[in-house]
Design brief:
This protein is mainly beta. Helix content is 6%, strand content 64%.
Length: 81
């Protein structure tokens, strides 16, 4: 199984859910959007921040706890604190 195939199953805890595909990202239970550009996203959760890098990011759906992002995923980094 390729690494990108493993990402399709997502990251899940009791507090959040993150599903990453090559051209789509879906997140449940984020706290805030710290930064959003066409190439970078920083989302805040209760005990960490998630930096996502890619290309052509566009929000296609958003409410107070869910965000649906169209674009091409390259990498991500967890920022503690």
């Amino acid at each position: 199984m390729k690494a990108i195939d493993r990402l399709k199953y997502g990251f899940r805890s009791k507090e959040y859910f993150i599903s990453i595909y090559p051209d789509h990202i879906y997140v449940i239970n984020y706290k805030d959007i710290i930064d959003f550009t066409a190439n970078n996203i920083i989302l805040e959760f209760n005990d960490f921040k998630l930096k996502i890098k890619g290309l052509d990011f566009k929000i296609i759906r958003k409410n107070n706890c869910e965000i649906d992002i169209l674009g091409f995923f390259n990498s991500m980094e967890i920022i503690n604190g």
